[in-house]
């Protein structure tokens, strides 16, 4: 990964830093525009055969920045994009819900980067080992990053069962995006990006094998997913019980009104 902030690199000429900032700003603008269209046209719940998948292009953009330049670059991009969309695209979330929503995106990229720091791979994803490692990291990142759908359940915008179904479609869609879009782009553009980084920045070597950190990240992510799943099932059961209790009471009120 590149040093953060970028001016810590070996080459600090304004032209280089300006180019990096312009590329990041352009990616951020593209992520906001594509994210807006995905929300407006409901790409997040797109039917494919008997399945529903959630397509969210900002995720692919953020993941590529995290892969090539480091977690801080990708997480900042995807978190700001999610925050803007959560606060502006109707129905807008509360400030607390929007922060939790964008934190879920950053969490997914954090798990992705932790795995790659523990088991380093060639960011050009050219070998079978690199492809398998990239796919595994992408799977866990997709599952954790899709927790934004569960935040909508906490916000009351979706019923618990609907939020869980939305989460399933999101992580599946994110994973498919990573495999079919982010992976090929990493292979096609990775060589050029790595040469540019080596020419202008003193990239620190990837840390050794932080396998304990990796396992901790995986266990934490899976525990979070399990907690949300149990919460959704419990909330769904409570809602069904409340509905069964409310229906007879409503019938009694209607009968009393008719008799009155």
Q: Secondary-structure blueprint of this entry?
A:
Elements lengths: L13 H27 L5 E3 L2 E3 L3 H13 L1 H18 L6 H24 L9 H18 L2 H7 L5 H41 L10 H49 L1
Antiparallel strand pairs: 1-2
Descriptive overview:
This protein has 260 residues and is mostly helical. It is 76% helix and 2% strand. The chain has a two-stranded antiparallel sheet with strand order 1-2. The chain is globular, with a radius of gyration of 22 Å. The termini are far apart.
List the total number of helices: 8
Distance between the termini: 75 Å
- Radius of gyration based on Cα positions: 22 Å
Query: What string gives the helices and strands in order?
Result: HEEHHHHHHH
Q: Mean pLDDT score, rounded?
A: 75
Features:
260 residues, mainly alpha, two-stranded antiparallel sheet, 8 helices, 2 strands, globular
What's this entry about, in short?
With 260 residues, the protein is mainly α. It contains 8 helices and 2 strands, in the order αββααααααα.
